[in-house]
Amino acid sequence: MGGKLVWDKNGERTYETGVDHGVLYPATGLNGAYAKGVAWNGLTAVTESPSGAEATALYADNIKYLNLMSAEEFGATIEAYTYPDEFAVCDGTAEPATGVKIGQQPRKQFGLCYRTKIGNDSVGEEYGYKIHIIYGCYASPSEKGYNTINDSPEAISFSWEVTTTPIEMKGYKPTATIVIDSTKVDSDKLKALENILYGVDADTETQTEAVDPRLPLPDEIVRIVNGTNNG
Length: 231
Prior knowledge:
Shape: globular
Low-confidence stretches: none
Order of helices and strands: EEEEEEEEEEEEEEHH
C-alpha cells in the first residue's frame, strides 16, 4: 500500500536492550559439530565487533576505476561474572586432577547463543527478542584482576576477545553469525528452534524422552524457519 511516509508511529518505536539466555556449545571436532549445550550463567555483555569490508580504490585513465572490498570478519567480546566448567578447555585450561587446573593449553573451538530483548513504545521490553548465534569461536587469553575486599566490594568480571571462522551456508558466502527475530518468525517454528537450542524435558512438549540442547547449523535453522525441515 502506497502513501506518504510517517515517522514514529505508535508501536513502531523499537529498541534493543539486555542480554540473557547464554548457552555454550563446545566443538566436538567432528564435521563441524558441537557438543551438548550448557547454560552460561552470569553473562553481562556480548559486544559484536565486525571488521574488514574496507574499500581499496583503484584508479585508471585518470579517474577512480573501481573499489575492491576486503573480506569481512566477525569478532566479539564476551563479559561475564562466571562461566561454565565446560568453557575451561575453550579458555586454554586443562584439569589433570580433580580440582587442579593448569593454563596455557590448546584452546578448543566453541559456539555461542544468547538473546537480546526488543522493546517498543507500546509494551516495552515484552515486544520480542532476537536470538544471536555465533559459530567457530576461539577465545583469546583474558585479564583477571584480583583486588582486596574493601568498603566498596565488586565481583570479579571476566572478559574474552573472540575471533571466528565462518562456516558454509548453502546459497550464501560462509558466515559466523546468524540472528533470529521473534517478531518476524512464526511462533511455532520459533518454538521448534528453541527446543533444539535449549533442550526439552521429558515431561513437557509431549516428549517421552528428554532432548539435550544442541547447536543447529545455519542451513538447518533456515529449514526450520521455512517449515521445510524433515529431520
